[in-house]
Write a structure and sequence with these properties.
Blueprint: E1 3-10, H1 16-29, E2 35-42, E3 48-50, H2 65-70, E4 73-80, E5 83-88, E6 104-108, H3 118-126, H4 135-142, H5 144-153, E7 161-165, H6 168-171, H7 173-183, E8 187-191, E9 201-203, H8 206-216, E10 222-227, E11 232-241, E12 246-254, H9 265-269, E13 289-290, H10 297-313, E14 318-327, E15 333-339, H11 347-351, H12 357-376, H13 386-389
Parallel strand pairs: 1-2, 1-6
Antiparallel strand pairs: 2-3, 3-4, 4-5, 7-10, 8-9, 8-10, 11-12, 11-14, 12-13, 14-15
Length: about 400
Amino acid sequence: MKLNVAVFFGGESVEHEVSIISAHQAIEALDKNKYNVIPIYVAKDRRLFTDEGMHDISFFTGKKLDAVIANSTQIDIVKENNKVIIKPVKTKLFGNKELGTIDVVIPVMHGTNGEDGTIQGYLEMLKVPYAGCDIYGASVGQDKVLQKHILNDNDLPITNWFWCYASDIDTKKDEILEKVHKLIYPVILKPSRCGSSVGISIANNDEEYLSSFEDARQYDEKIITEKVIKPMREINCSVLGDGVNCETSVLEEVNHSDDTDFLDFKNKYQGGSKSSKSGASKGMASTARIVPAPLSDLERELIEKLAKDTFKVLGASGVCRIDFIMDKESKKVYINEINTIPGSLAYYLWTEKGVSFTELLDRLIDIALERERRRSKMTFSYDTDLLETYQSGGSKGVKK
């Protein structure tokens, strides 16, 4: 019997459109002999929609998202007994009251309100198995401030940095600039909980810093400032598995055009690639890269070890991509960040290791089901007589 696999994508995020591309790459790669694939589109206002036409990305391309919604069925997902059921919000007199059930979910939602634990919490409430990080791993993976504290506490190498609330610039500007001066320009500013390089910029002096800060605060309430490593190389590694067992992909080196020290949103997703005759975006798979990265055996082994260590201490699961910065001169390696739902699910790093995108998705589903089996043996609640013995007006039952 085929598993009903729901692929969630979209969401209220600056990476909404990127999510649509990544999800459809996964939908196309899923083995239709094993799975009934159900596309679940999360609109920017957080309503859920589905439609048979959503199996093809052409359902979304060349039109406004309002038109996509108009041609789709808005749905609710409910738990009834032991089944997770898809129901239309509005039913016609003789229409279907149910649109199917879900056995497992693959979330392909990048950024805030999806990758950050939001969708994971929703799926936990439904008690449906899902691929990727759980709530805690997702939350820490999205919040770079929490992430860096954990990495630092585990003696994993990160660049010199500090963070502040966006509102602090209004009352503590001099204190913030003093910290910047200790890092020494150039520095890079990042919203703590965004992805795809949105709101990220490099500052070389106070004027640029304050301007960059104003841009970054549009996207988050917490702003990170880091020392820029120059000259640098960007090396990425994907990790697949869970906290107990995980393995690394081949490594890639991301090419930087001109004098850009990081890939912005446009370069990541709209730059096309030399292998694409049409120049059309293929998500992160279209970014200019060298695979495998030209590294010595010692450099490769170090980065693979750091990738596994990062994956484990952050409580990650599923398939992630961990980005590293290497100082070209000193060869020192720094952990930049983890991407818990990477663009294109980082499949392009696994195909180079002989793992097809279809096999990668199979393994993600297996990991999700195995996690649910482990959790089913754990105790999350137990019966008590507390309510039976509770006396109104008394102090019993008050948690102190």
